[in-house]
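Researcher: We plan to redesign the surface later, but first we want a full-length starting point. Tokens attached.
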């Protein structure tokens, strides 16, 4: 491993080139209209097909409604035990429902479970009206679109809360994966609802009490999130599977049958865990580079990673990993052990993987004496004369 430190302006870029050679992995193939598979930890896109094409999302768009509900719970604008009224407009919905009746009141928690487990169109509308700026589902849909744009959704437009067919109600596979990732990462205390296999609301919907997510039928780590179907959208799923510390989030859209959805859901999860593996390129506490120090009683300080620098790789791939330590310069003495020095930025261009890990000082360093200050002043004059300086370390 060769480490080159080049000092320029306010930062020092330390490039660590690591090469791994093997045969290339095959991309996952889906029969649907669009697809995306994302490594949850790194955000790396491992496979995609028409991932940015806006398509009818059907009930998969309910995860945006649920995100808005979770956000409201976190901010105290909703309470799980709060009872919300059911309007005539909400009760009028058909398709997948909780069989809510106009005029009754239902707890927020039951409504959330009604949306997640039962895919209740009526439950979605009740939550929407409660959170809407003008009390209407249409107002909530406009708010969903605005909030989605703030979160980074680039190909989504909402006209209702539940995916009811509308030519202007659209989402891309990439946007669905992004909002799913936000939910898992931001609201782990509420994410548990997605793994529930059954919900009986007053035993009203006995024929609609089971979660449609096929991942929950298999004992291989599936714990979310949402299926969807309409004639225009076809069969789709926003899925998540976790095994140990690894998780894949994927979207399959525009599949022809429910059976194909089930088969491809299992296939894409197994493909992820078999075809990719994690590799630790620096262990927690390991020194990455020696960083030049100004005015110190030693010329350099060791910069180490706080946690394991672990990245996802194809199990068999010709991949080049580039790790760049970006150091805040100049590094001035005195330095305390554990002081922040910058970060290690790791990239794999082949997979569009990017990850960052904090770098801290591995040891303390005192301020140097008079001779050190004189030598530093001379070096500063040389730098200002236009002479480029760099250091090469071979640990």
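Model: Full-length starting sequence:
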């Amino acid at each position: 491993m060769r480490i080159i430190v080049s000092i320029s302006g306010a930062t020092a870029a330390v490039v660590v080139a690591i090469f791994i050679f093997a045969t290339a992995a095959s991309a996952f193939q889906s029969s649907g209209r669009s697809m995306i598979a994302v490594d949850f930890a790194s955000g790396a896109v491992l496979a995609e097909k028409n991932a940015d094409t806006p398509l009818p999302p059907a009930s998969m768009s309910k995860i945006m409604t649920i995100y808005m509900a979770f956000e409201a719970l976190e901010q105290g604008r909703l309470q799980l035990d709060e009872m919300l009224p059911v309007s005539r407009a909400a009760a009028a919905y058909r398709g997948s429902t909780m069989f809510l009746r106009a005029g009754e009141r239902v707890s927020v928690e039951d409504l959330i479970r009604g949306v997640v487990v039962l895919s209740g169109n009526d439950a979605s509308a009740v939550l929407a009206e409660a959170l809407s700026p003008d009390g209407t589902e249409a107002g909530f849909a406009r708010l969903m679109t605005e909030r989605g744009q703030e979160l980074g959704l680039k190909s989504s437009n909402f006209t209702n809360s539940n995916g009811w067919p509308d030519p202007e109600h659209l989402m891309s596979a990439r946007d669905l994966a992004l909002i799913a990732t936000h939910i898992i990462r931001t609201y782990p205390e509420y994410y548990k609802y997605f793994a529930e296999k059954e919900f009986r609301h007053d035993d009203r919907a006995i024929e609609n009490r089971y979660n449609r997510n096929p991942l929950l039928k298999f004992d291989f780590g599936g714990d979310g999130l949402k299926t969807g179907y309409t004639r225009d959208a076809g069969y789709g799923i926003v899925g998540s599977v976790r095994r140990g510390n690894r998780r894949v989030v994927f979207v399959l859209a525009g599949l022809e049958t429910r059976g194909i959805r089930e088969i491809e859901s299992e296939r894409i999860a197994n493909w992820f865990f078999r075809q990719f593996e994690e590799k630790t390129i620096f262990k927690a506490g390991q020194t990455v580079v020696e960083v030049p120090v100004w005015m110190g009683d030693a010329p350099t300080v060791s910069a180490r990673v706080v946690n394991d620098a672990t990245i996802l790789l194809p199990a068999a791939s010709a991949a080049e990993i580039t790790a760049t330590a970006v150091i805040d310069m100049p590094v001035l003495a005195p330095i305390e052990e554990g002081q922040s020095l910058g970060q290690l930025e790791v990239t794999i261009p082949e997979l569009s993987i990017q990850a960052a890990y904090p770098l801290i000082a591995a040891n303390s360093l005192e301020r140097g004496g008079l001779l050190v200050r004189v030598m530093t002043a001379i070096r500063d004059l040389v730098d200002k004369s236009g002479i480029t300086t760099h250091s090469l370390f071979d640990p």
